[in-house]
Amino acid sequence: MNKNNYKRLTPTQRIEIATNMEQRHNTGQKVVDIAEKFQVTTRHCYKLEEKHQRSPSMEEEHRTGRPQKVSDRMVRRIVREVKKNPFATSLKLLKEVNIGMTENSQIKPSTIRAYTIKKGLDAIGLLLSLSFQKTALIKG
Fold first, then answer.
1. Rounded to an integer, what distance in angstroms lies between the CA atom of residue 115 and that of residue 107?
2. 53-56 — which CB contacts under 8 Å span 24+ positions?
3. Which end of the chain lies in a sparser environment, N or C, as judged by fewer CB atoms within 10 Å?
4. Is the pTM here over 0.85, yes or no?
5. How far apart are CA 14 and CA 37, in angstroms?
6. Helical spans, DSSP H, in the chain
7. Residue 30 near residue 15, CB atoms below 8 Å
8. Cα separation of 113 and 115, whole Å?
9. How far apart are CA 39 and CA 3, in angstroms?
């Protein structure tokens, strides 16, 4: 099985693999044959069989994942501060945004830069001006 040619299985294919896996003892089918038929790994076949035993409908399960770094309220606060002063540095905006916030809920300048790009503030002309330090041409 070439992993570079990966195609997502349809729900019907998933159910078919799982039922073939569950009936393989009665039919005499080998796991390798099932895997080759559907062009998946044998490990994937076993995983689909386990999932089918937990949930016969094979519906997508809820995935937990990392919690949001910034709440919707904080994003609106960042956008409001950027619109007030579009040429402020991220450090100046940081001070304005973090006013009245507890230490645990305060954000970093990189978060402000990331959310201004994410929200498309650069597309409407509200870019943050980053302060760069010029390098010296002559060492001395």
1. 11
2. 53/22
3. C
4. no
5. 12
6. 11-27, 31-38, 42-54, 72-84, 90-97, 109-118
7. no
8. 6
9. 10
